[in-house]
Write a structure and sequence with these properties.
With about 140 residues, this protein is mainly α. Helix 2 runs antiparallel to helix 3. Helix content is about 75%, strand content about 0%. It has one domain. The longest helix is centred in the middle third of the chain and has 30 residues. The chain is elongated. The N and C termini lie far apart (about 45 Å). It has six helices and no strands.
Length: about 140
């Protein structure tokens, strides 16, 4: 089943929001990889990097989540007639919503005073689960 009908495909190709998404998505991916790298570096050797940079990376990831979510809403409205959770992008929107929630949760926990190690453990859960090298903070 194709994602777009011929009418939707024509709308997608003519939409300014398509171009914006094409430009922003690779930037978000680079920010994502940088954040994973910084978290892995901090988790393997907390003395090697200041925790401030972990928060900066998460801040940029969160800002880009919000920017892409908003521009994606305009894209979905243009193409499918719904602001969010159109059937063609339902699971992508659910995933983005969950990821954005956890990024905001990170800042709430940091504001409430949770220790850096606790925040990094939450942020690096998938890395920790697949890592074969023990880390001193776990």
């Amino acid at each position: 089943m194709p994602r777009y009908t011929p009418e939707q495909l024509a709308k997608r190709n003519a939409s300014v929001w398509t171009e914006i998404q094409i430009l922003l998505a690779p930037v978000q991916f680079v920010i994502f990889l940088t954040g994973i790298g910084l978290n892995a570096l901090y988790a393997s050797n907390p003395a090697s990097i200041d925790f401030f940079w972990i928060s900066v990376a998460i801040l940029f990831k969160t800002l880009f989540f919000v920017i892409l979510f908003i521009t994606g809403m305009f894209f979905e409205k243009d193409i499918f007639g719904k602001w969010v959770f159109s059937k063609e992008f339902f699971w992508e929107d659910v995933g983005s919503s969950v990821a954005t929630f956890f990024h905001f949760l990170y800042f709430v926990l940091a504001w409430k005073g949770y220790p850096d190690d606790t925040l990094v453990i939450w942020a690096t859960g998938p890395i920790r689960a697949t890592s074969s090298t023990p880390c001193s903070i776990w």
